Amino acid sequence: MTRCKGLISTRMLFAVMSFIGISCLYIMRINMSVVMTIIARTNHSELSGNDVINSSHGVCPDPSSQEGFNKTEMSHSQQAKFQWSSHLQELLLGAYFIGQTIGTIPSGWLSDRFGGKWLMGVGAGVSALMNLAAPLAVEVSVPLFFLTRFISGIAETTSFPAANTLVTKWAPENERTKIMLFITSGSALGCACGLTLSGLVCSQLGWEASFYIFGSLSLAWALLWSVVVYEEPSDHPCISRKERELIETQRIRACDKKTSSIPLCSIFISPRAAAYSICMLTLAGMVSLTLMTNIPLFLKRVLRLDIFNIGLMGALPYYLFWLLMLLASCFSDFVIHRNYLTKTQTRKLMINTGAVITAGSLIAISHAGCNHRFVVALMTTGMGGVGIAYSGIFANPSDLAPAFAGTVCAVGNLLSVASGFAGPVFVGFMTEDQSDPNGWRTVFYTTAGFCLAGACFFQIFGSGEVQSWAMTRDEVEDEKKKNKVDDEFNVQPVIKDLVAQKVAKDVIV
Known about the structure:
The chain is globular, with a radius of gyration of 26 Å. By secondary structure, it is an all-alpha fold. Mean pLDDT is 80; it is low at 45-57 and 73-78. It starts with 9 loop residues before the first helix and ends with a helix. It is built from 20 helices and no strands.
């Protein structure tokens, strides 16, 4: 086999490529939320050009009138081409998540059955093509535009199940959490870069250019992924013998010897898997995805920021989200490997801490008024809490079922993306007048409630240990033998005590 010298190890090359791929997908996802603030007229657009304040609704004044605030955006009337109600806007934003809901379970099954490399690469390529087609589709008809978002959602749903499956093959067990969280953190950095770049591109080149640029970048990544990433370490032509042996001897045994079939029934009825799925529904779904989809709309309609400053300020929460996710994952590995806490205790600590921070920030935003800097600071704190919680959530499928991490991830992701559709619909009903802070207050309070409910459920039912239904036959036998040996060691002292007591009694008699 040919050996190649590289600047980084092949497993780190896989991790970096996966990280970049997830980032590209989330840049395309968040770009749609920014574009929606430009092309659609709000139900309250008559206030967008002046500083009149509606006293009954408490509409915020235009911040561009404040000293030192630069307004770089073109007039709203020049850009808002479509008269779409808030319900239609949220439906179009949610079309992506409808596609994800349909594609999630099949993606998990396909990744565990056939591997993750081609699934992830093809999914990203199809999503990139849909983004390239979006500007033409929206000009032709709303249903066609809806279809491009729907197909993009189906295609992108392959990413996390495929990544989970590949990580169990490429990561030694002591690096698995770190690598998985590094890859997952691409979602946070993608949102941050996506908001910043979308605001810049849309304000300077137009909203159509954002679809073309980000779609082209993702397509280029998909082509590069197909060339440099391999399904198994043994398939890679450039891996060193030392690294291959390190991975194959220290990775989870379940990667090499799987049970005969994927235990779907066990996954669905397991309370431990259910705890992970509930966290995906609440923290990763109703909280993270609802905020991700609607933060640009809130900044535009309520705080009345221009598109450039939406990209600039709206990105700050996601930079902290990304940073804290990485730091929390390193902290988790540290306390686990030093035996300060068990895996279960560590996962619960991260999820509970993040949930409390996020819920408190969301409630505070509801009463922060029109101070856009203070609101953005609270959003930043809230998304930082989500990042801490993510360090526990996204490592959990590999904790519970290393051999079937893709399927467990897919089940949880199904609930997450379903709430990603339900969340925007709920926001649409609560904010028929998108500039009314009262409707958004209801949204933030409800989201905070979901956040705390998910953490409480995981505290009761969550676990960080491998489940019996996820073990291979050899592992089950080994576990039985181990338990038998432990029982013998526990019984022997008791027998000795009984014999000694009997001998003493006989001597006395």
